[in-house]
Amino acid sequence: RRGNSIELSLNVLVSPHLERETLSRLEDKMKQSDFIFLVLRFWDYVPPYIIEKYAVSAFLNEDFLRAIRLKIEELRPPGRREPHSCALKEHSDTSFTRKEVLPPPERLSNPVAMDHWVLYEPKVQNFPLVDGFFFVDSNPMTLVGLRMTTAGEHRTTTSTVRQFTECLAAYFNGWEELSRDMSWEIIYVQHAGSTPINEQQRCDVVNSDNVSRAENREIAAFWEEEVRQYIAAVSSGGFMMGEAL
């Protein structure tokens, strides 16, 4: 029972092994859109690895997107900057037009044109920094990264940020010019029952042969001063499911 709502029954598998096996078989047998719809219906009960795998695609669902927008909160260092509304919340009347799956950069024959309000999801193992991202046609243009996490913190490093920008340069035509003066935002998406992220996440300087000391300092300063960070923790009680994706 949720508050004064109607009481509903729910069967929960006792064994984690059976749970994983059952979800794996459903994932294999169902269309991806139907499986994502199932995940959204039982968002509060599915294991974290399923949420982290499919939460990017869930942004295509209007009910989920509406719930995310309502729950977004800024992770703002005290006394440093004025509050800043997230681009996803500011453009509350805009939805994603489609999702584009990006291959590993080395498998892309030519860079592609960047589009606004397209949900880009790299299908790359250990893709740096984010799980998905999109661009907002604001002034200046805004890059919004999406990171799914159940942990109470999610720090990054200067070399990871550098790898991310290198991937973007490989993916998109004219990235150097496009990225000039571009605003950066990152949204950490969590299940409401996860250990909450309560403060801005650090970017640690890690010595690397690929990044000079000067560039390390520049990236760390950029992350600290320019990258706006937000948290959105949602539960299935925060959205009503309509039609399938």
Characterise the protein shown here.
With 245 residues, the chain is an alpha/beta fold. The chain has a domain at 74-234. 33% of the residues lie in helices and 18% in strands. It has eight helices and nine strands. Strands 1-9-7-5-4 form a five-stranded mixed β-sheet. A hairpin with a 5-residue loop joins strand 4 (132-136) and strand 5. Helix 2 (32-41) packs across helix 3. It is globular and about 50 Å long. It starts with 15 loop residues before the first helix and ends in an 11-residue tail after the last strand. The relative contact order is 0.17. The mean pLDDT is 84. This is Retrotransposon hot spot (RHS) protein, putative. InterPro entries: Trypano_RHS.
Keywords:
alpha/beta, two-stranded parallel sheet, Retrotransposon hot spot (RHS) protein, putative, Trypano_RHS, 18% strand, five-stranded mixed beta sheet, 245 residues
What's the overall geometry?
Answer: globular
What ranges have pLDDT less than 50 throughout 5 or more consecutive residues?
A: none
Largest sheet: 5 strands, mixed
Strand order of the largest sheet: 1-9-7-5-4
The quaternary organization reads as: single chain
Q: Could you tell me the strand content as a percent range?
A: 15-25%
Fraction of residues in H or I helices = 25-40%
* Straight-line distance between termini: 27 Å
The Cα radius of gyration reads 19 Å
Write down the overall mean pLDDT: 84
Say how many strands there are: 9
